[in-house]
Design a protein that fits this description.
This protein is 8% helix and 54% strand. The protein is mostly beta strands. An eight-stranded antiparallel β-barrel has the order 1-2-3-4-5-6-7-8. A hairpin with a 4-residue loop joins strand 6 and strand 7 (167-178). The longest helix has 12 residues, at 2-13. The radius of gyration is 20 Å and the shape is elongated. The model is unreliable at 3-18 and 224-228 (pLDDT under 50).
C-alpha cells in the first residue's frame, strides 16, 4: 500500500496530459464453483482485493496485468442440493493470483479526448494462482499447511466509466477456469490420496472474483495514430 501511495504522488507531480496508462485498486468478493458448497455462479463468500495496471494501446484494446488476493468459504449446508446438505462438508481457502492478458472494449474508449468515456469490456489471458492444498478424511478437513500452484483461464466481463479527468471507475465479474480439481479439497493428487477423492473428478474447479476497480490515468500518447 505504501508503494502504491508513493507511485500516485510521483504521478500527480508529473506532467499533465493525455492518459495512456491506468493503475489502481480492485475490491470485491470471491466464491468457488466445485464439489463442495453452493453451485451458484456469483455468490461471494469472502473478500477479494488487489491492484490493476492497464496500458491502453488503442480505443478498442488494452494490455492488462493484475495481482489479486481472495478467500472463500465452501459450505454444503448452504447448497441447494439435498445430497450436499446431508454430507455437511465445509472449508475455507484463499487464492493469490497474478494475471496478464488483453482487455477488449465493445465501443471506442478514448482517454485522449474530452468528455466522458464509457464502454463494456471483456478480458482474458493467463492466470497463475496459489491456493491451500487440503483434503477430507472421514468428513473432517485435513489441513496440510501446504500451498499448491496452478494455472487458470480468466473470463471477465465488465464496464468502465471515466468519472473525472484522471480517474476511471469500473465494475466486473471474472470467472476463472482452473487446471486443478482440488480447490475444494475434493480431489487431492497422488496415489496415496485416491481414497480421499469424491465428487466429479473429471471436472476441474472454478473460482469467481466480482468487484469494482478505481484506476488513475497517466502518461502522454506516444503514437499519433494509435487513438485515431
Amino acid at each position: 500500500m505504501r508503494v502504491f501511495i508513493v507511485v500516485l504522488l510521483i504521478l500527480c507531480l508529473g506532467e499533465l496530459g493525455a492518459q495512456t496508462y491506468e493503475v489502481g485498486l480492485y475490491a470485491g468478493g470471491a466464491n468457488n464453483i466445485g464439489d463442495v458448497g453452493r453451485m451458484n455462479f456469483i455468490v461471494p463468500s469472502g473478500l477479494a482485493y488487489g491492484g490493476v495496471f492497464k496500458w491502453n494501446k488503442s480505443k478498442r484494446y488494452a494490455w492488462r496485468a493484475s495481482m489479486l488476493y481472495g478467500n472463500f468459504t465452501a459450505d454444503d449446508s448452504k447448497s441447494s442440493l439435498s445430497s450436499r446438505k446431508q454430507r455437511g462438508y465445509s472449508l475455507d481457502n484463499s487464492i493469490l493470483e497474478a494475471s496478464a492478458g488483453l482487455e477488449f472494449n465493445f465501443v471506442d474508449y478514448n482517454l485522449h479526448s474530452l468528455g466522458r468515456a464509457f464502454t463494456p469490456y471483456l478480458y482474458t489471458g493467463v492466470t497463475y494462482f496459489r491456493y491451500e492444498y487440503n483434503y477430507f478424511d472421514a468428513g473432517q478437513l485435513q489441513n496440510t499447511g501446504q500451498k499448491e500452484g496452478s494455472f487458470a483461464i480468466p473470463m471477465t466481463v465488465g464496464a468502465k466509466l471515466r468519472i473525472s479527468q484522471y480517474f476511471i471507475l469500473g465494475a466486473e465479474i471474472g470467472a476463472r477456469y482452473t487446471f486443478t480439481d482440488n480447490l475444494d479439497a475434493s480431489n487431492p493428487e497422488g496415489s496415496n490420496f485416491e481414497q480421499f477423492r469424491f465428487g466429479n473428478i473429471l471436472s476441474d474447479d472454478w473460482y469467481v472474483f466480482s468487484g469494482v476497480t478505481l484506476t488513475y490515468t497517466f502518461g502522454r500518447i506516444v503514437c499519433s495514430d494509435c487513438f485515431e
